[in-house]
Amino acid sequence: MMRGIRGAITVSADRPEEILTETRKLVLEMAEQNRVDPEHVASVVISTTTDISSAFPAKAVRTIENWTYVPVMCTHEMDVPGSMPLCIRVMMHVNTAVGQKDIHHIYMNDAVKLRPDLLKDSKVEER
């Protein structure tokens, strides 16, 4: 069975080093909380709000040990008025036997405001 694992994190500014650091942190947390082996990841789609354009977040994923061959793609999120700025969203497609309700979706920094209904215990980190 393939499941989607969602995650989101915000950055304080459109700076390449912060985009890469925060994306890496988010993906590692998503993998850890869901016990994901990169061999079981079918693909990762990363979107950013349009105010992020100084770096490709996918580069951060490709630098994680054993994630080199995981297909990763970046795109921009819809530019909806009033939406959360400086936000990076990740959709990880994983082959797993874990039930849908047992998937841990990870929201960090200001992105915790996006889906408070999906937050579980200590899976959240605010800046």
From TrEMBL:
Residues given in the record as prephenate binding sites: 6, 89, 107
Catalytic activity: chorismate = prephenate
Gene Ontology MF terms in the entry: chorismate mutase activity
Keywords per UniProt: Amino-acid biosynthesis, Aromatic amino acid biosynthesis, Isomerase
Record InterPro entries: Chorismate_mutase_AroH, RutC-like_sf
EC number: 5.4.99.5
A Pfam family per the record: CM_1
Gene3D superfamilies according to UniProt: RutC-like
Single GO BP term: amino acid biosynthetic process
Enzymatic class: isomerase
Name of the protein in question: chorismate mutase
Organism: Planococcus halotolerans
Name of the gene: aroH
